[in-house]
Amino acid sequence: MKALYSLAILATFAGGHAYAACTYPTAPDALPDGNSATLEQMVAAQKQVKQFDADIGAYTACLKLENDAALAQVDQGSDDAKKKEERKKEIERVQVQKHNAAVEADEALAARFNEQLKVFKAKAKK
Predict the structure, then answer these.
(1) What's the burial of 44, exposed, middle or buried (CB within 10 Å: 0-12/13-18/19+)?
(2) Closest CA to 85 of 99, 100, 75, 70
(3) CB neighbours of 75 closer than 8 A, spacing ≥ 6?
(4) Among the four residues 24, 45, 76, 117, which has the most C-beta atoms within 10 Å?
(5) Torsion angle, CA of 68/74/76/81, rounded to 10 degrees?
(6) Are 20 and 95 in contact (CB under 8 A)?
(7) In the chain, count of helices (H) and strands (E)?
(8) Contact 14/41 with Cβ under 8 angstroms?
(9) What is the tens place of the pLDDT at every residue in 36-58?
């Protein structure tokens, strides 16, 4: 019975804004310059880029959950159908903007790293 009571309390607190705390990940501060970086620096940067990619994946998954919860909350509201549809469109628009911005930042970081990696590899061939 205690477990059932605990689950009921947890469900109460988990409703509504459970996913409102999606935290945008922090990108690595700086990437090494391929002209002067050591192998260890490039490997460390690669790990940071991969971690940021994973963090962006988690962030976008959180956004999806947040979006789904917000849409469900709108459905439960007492507004008329037209207002609900307008609100849903706005929620979707904001979610798409956040998602696209996160993916673009992820891709931009990867592109910058790949450019420095090409420079590093070219330097190593000399």
Answers:
(1) middle
(2) 75
(3) 84
(4) 45
(5) -130
(6) no
(7) 3, 0
(8) no
(9) 999 999 999 999 999 999 999 99
